Amino acid sequence: MNQELVLRAAEILPRDAVFSIVGGRRARMSGAPYFYAYWLLPRRHTEDPSASDWIVSWGADPSRLGVKVDVVADLGGGAKILRVRR
Amino acid sequence: MTASYFGLGVFDVLLLVTGLAVLDALGLVRSGRDALRHSGLALVVGWASVGVFESWALVVGAPLTRWVVASICFAIAAAGVLMRRRVPPRRLRLVRESGPSRLLAVAGAAVVFVQLAALLWRAATQGAPLQWDAWAFWLPKARAIFDFGGLDTAVGGFTSFVSPSYPPLVPALDASVFAFTGNTQASPLAVQEWLIAAAFFGALWSLLAVRVRPLILWPCLALLASLPNFVAMIGSSLGDEPLMLLLGLGCACSALWLLERDARYAALAAIFLAAAALAKNEGMPPALALGLTMLAVAFVRRPRRPLAPALVLLAPLAAYAPWGIWIRIQGLPPSTDYRLSDLLHPALLGDRVHRLTYAAHVLPVHLFSRQQWLIAVPLMLAGALLAAPRCPALSLLALASVGTVIAGLLAVYWIGSRPVAWYVLTSVDRVLASAVVMSVVFLALLLGEASRQNPAAVP
């Protein structure tokens, strides 16, 4: 589940944030997107990175997100918290 | 954390008072002694009726704050107080046990209490649920109601989670717990679910002891409390948990109406079955099967009195209607896993017949698995055979309602859109729970009727 990532996201993302979760196969197989969406409430989860202010990334390639981002926290192993650049 | 549990206690007192008011209105609780005896039943009646009204309140856009929940409780209780003058009291007589057979009843009761104590320990120490469905959508929906003030349809709101069209009773009741604890920690939910499970046993005892002697009743309750999958379900925060309890109570009340011919039981059945229909989509078919069977019996026997069973049949439909309208307005599909209309397409059914044969092969393996459900269902089937000569209507009610759950599951697996092996594997253990709990409730009644010295004149 990469607990460190979700706990760090809970610290960084504001409570009114709209965020998406992107990840590689490992993240999807673990069910992490569902758990993160629950854990990070009342922040609002969307599956569309372009509609979000924040992206919680676990093993995704930032260049393939379709949006420009700034890395806010890099936890290593592909776990990053990204801010969508507007 | 202490403040959370204090808030939880306040919520449960409100549910208890609401349930007592409903039982008072029905003439079942008219003294302190009655209130004590029926306290388990009162709690589950309050829980079910408040859950139904909360679901309606959400549909019309209300948030579930402490004050809204308390207002719902007071409104139901006030309606109960107004009704009490019209309904005469009825003290339910207990069937007594004498002689050495009392020891077996005491042993059964001891098993129930030990199991409940162990479950309380687990709920208090292990806290938050771990099942996938619980944190993928049951708990998030409850948190969304609490955090966003109701059924929020925006990004990340109530309808953004898996199975958005599942009715809202379970998340509503969980959101009420959050409202009273003042936070969204899931740990108190496990304790709340234990309390409802304990009240469920108390309710079954106070209901069934009217017809079933302790020698039969307590071992049946002990069997229920010992079912491995039932025990695993308590505190899981899955929708299947309240569904199995509500359907079990609905069965008990429907059967008692059939045996005692007292409309009070029909009223209780209507409350529990209405709540079951709003707990999960799977609650509707067995609720309708119970109502239809009651109605059929009411037409066959003399004097014909179909009004009470007709209301039992209508209750789940009426309870669900506002939610059904709401999901249509929001444009949500009734289910993302299957389309009921597919049952009307013979060609599609023919193409998917391999799914049906697979499910028909696997389902009985799980249903009759001693590791999961002991021998609850075979015992109920034997009980239905034993009771059939004396009380065919009760046997019919048991077989029709439990059979509807099984048939409904087979139909869903048949028309489902997901790979059938995966679908069955990830759901069968919990979705069979209702059928098995209903079986054990009927088992007690069937054995009770089969062993009665002076059976009542029931067709």
Unreliable parts of chain B: none
Structural class of chain B: mainly alpha
Please estimate the helix content of chain B.
over 70%
If interface size is counted as residues with C-beta under 8 Å from the partner's C-beta, which chains form the largest one? Answer: A-B, 13 and 18 residues
Average pLDDT of chain B works out at 94
Segments of chain A where pLDDT lies below 50 for 5+ residues? Answer: none
Structural class of chain A: alpha/beta
Helix tally of chain A? 3
- Please tally the β strands of chain B and state the result: 0
Could you give a short account of the major beta sheet of chain A?
5 strands, mixed
Please give the alpha-carbon distance between the first and last residues of chain B: 55 Å
Strands of chain A, total number = 5
Terminal residue distance of chain A? 29 Å
Reported for the largest beta sheet of chain B, the result is: none
- Main-sheet strand order of chain A equals 2-1-3-5-4
Tertiary shape of chain A: globular
What is the multimeric organization of the chains shown? heterodimer
Percent of residues in beta strands of chain B: under 5%
Strand content of chain A: 25-35%
